[in-house]
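Minutes, project check-in
Item: structure for the 332-residue chain
Input as provided by the requester:
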Amino acid sequence: MPEGTGTPVVVGVDGGGTKTDLVVVDATGDVVGRASGGGANWEGVGVDAVGVVLGELLDRALGAAGRDRQDVAAWVCCLAGVDWPSDPDRLAPVLDRLGVGGDRLVLNDSFAALRAGTTGPVGCVSIAGTGAVCAGRNARGEVARTMGVGIGEGSGAWTIVTGALGAVAEAHHHSGPATALTDRLLAGAGVADADAFFEGVTRGTVPVGADLAPLVIEVAAAGDPVAVEVVRSAGTRHGRDLAGLADRLGLGTEDVEVVLAGGVHVHGAGDFRDAFCETVLAAVPGARFVVLEAAPVVGAALLALELAGWPAEAVRPALAAAVGGATVGGAE
């Protein structure tokens, strides 16, 4: 391959289902190139399309930086859909064809959020959006994450919505207490009674989605005890997921940063987050909670700097300021 034309740089990639951010960073931590484009989750767009998206972003960002692909000392791709050990191997051929120099690391996108929020490489992240996932890394460099498939774990907004539907159904059956959730859900659906509501849900004429979670959180914030229990139960469930992850990584007895990201953590900053934090602290007394403020691609860039053996933490403030803040969104 041809020699590079400029001083070495690293590349960080945060690829989601609908949007991918890529930054080019030099050894001093300056962002010298940046580009955003379509999604890079191979499960949604296909393996070959991931290569097309990343190739276009590399050309734009490296071109702006006055570099080419052989000037890259290291690059880290944190991509949605990289869920199992087989996935980096699945993507390897299309990434190889991009001809990027230097070392490469391919991780799930949750690890970008993790590194963007911690003050070092060690810590855990809880992402609670539409779905939910926890990820972590210990001092030995070992990483782990929950599956993020909602089996034996919480699923963010969906856990809240399904809990609310169950509570309204129990109230209708008189097998559970009455709740203000009933009137709010019926009004939102534009139906007269619970029978019409659940007929619509089961027949597909009343749409029910994760976007109802803020409504449930709002009813809980107003003091409805059933809604409070629904939201707290979801927070407790996700807290157990994080505590289990910390145990797998041997972090249960350590002081550890726990990054909070995703719309449910933001909008559910009362009951959901309180229950989550209480559950985590019961198992990980040294947990310190940090709300994610930096964009996840900052974490991918920091990982790339570390992969290249360049200073990372010292340049974090300038890097985060140059890239900008996190956006409230889903998970996975």
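Outcome recorded: The chain has two domains: 9-108+293-323, 119-292.
No further action items on this chain.
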